[in-house]
Fold:
Amino acid sequence: MTAHEATPPHGAGRERQNRIYRDGVSGLAPNIPTDPATLEKAASDALSASAFAYLAGGAGAELTMQANRHAFTRWAIVPRMLRDVSERNLTTEVFGRTLPAPLALAPIGVLELAHEEGDLAVARAAAATGVPFIFSNQASFPMEDCADVMGNSPRWFQLYWSTNDELVWSFVERAENCGAEAIVVTLDTTMLGWRPRDLNLGSLPFSQGQGIAQYTSDPVFVQMVKQRIVTEPVGRPDVKITRSTVKTLLNMTHHYPGKFIPNLLSAQPRTAVETFLQTYSRPSLTWDNIESLRARTELPIVLKGVLHPDDARHAADIGVDGIVVSNHGGRQVDGAIASLSALPSVAEAAGGLTVIFDSGVRTGADMFKALALGADLVLLGRPYVWGLALEGEHGAEDVIRNIIGEFDLTLGLSGLRSVADITRDAVTAV
Structure:
């Protein structure tokens, strides 16, 4: 079966749990915890303090992160009885591609913090399960390398709009060439949010040269770095030379493409980091930029970070193809509306756009509720990263299969047989 045809078998949830129980007879417990709290705790224990802070942290007092989770408790599933649910169909179609379940992997930057194979491991896990993987703009491996290990499996590309349009268009062209089936423009990160977990450690992975592989593999960016070396003086008088400074330089050099010693003797690794930090985002991003993208590519365009119905209407008016209802997992604006709370009104305003939900999804039951409230597809974020941290590719794959398995059981136990059956009357406000 090819990745394009990949579908979970009827009874995917029962098969998943039965396999775990059969292993239990032999005294084998799952290496990847099946509940979200234990999974996150295991990852926290396995990761360094700075890695976990970056991957787990949110903005400010993390009220938005809390709100994302609490919003799910305000909706309850209403199961129906005495319906034949012996066979269920989880497939759904998005942008012309039939997917095995209404699930995709959200773009998450600097995955090398969780595992040395980072994006490559997740790409293989996505291919094994048939779910789309949205390549992060802040990846640890170039998009081309990830595409190479995915075969025909679906992949999209997340775009952060930098201050250099030529670089933006280069990213888009590369995404097209490596088989991306959509461009996901992240709107809510034109500046980094105030993230105390990182600030308290003075830790930003990008300043170490981590999470910038899309840039250092890009011909336009490489030319920008070379030009900066020629036109700007070498040296940073505002940086004190300490043991930590030397370690940072070595980290930058290690992460830069090419051989270590020539890189160490050149200014390119450090200049690449400085160039990235000055160009990676554009606070002046407007609807005009999105219209220019629409004129440049025939790929579906998805706008990520929509929380207001008027923004959904405007997106439809300018001809984009989908929106992601998301508050960036609580990482940008502390006290922002929970994504699930915004979903019903935004989905209604979106008209015929594909509506994708993101932020706070931890279980198959969460998927069910988001679909009932208007989503066509649900993004999974931090949980697959925790699986990656614990067992690499296989850990991420286990998390994906567990989420889909629970979703399948939730669907059947609610008296429904297909994704299309999940309508608003499947849930009630509590």
User: Anything to note?
Assistant: Confidence is low (pLDDT under 50) at residues 1-5. The radius of gyration is 22 Å. Residues 382-413 form the longest helix (32 residues). Residues 209 and 255 are 6 Å apart (CA to CA).
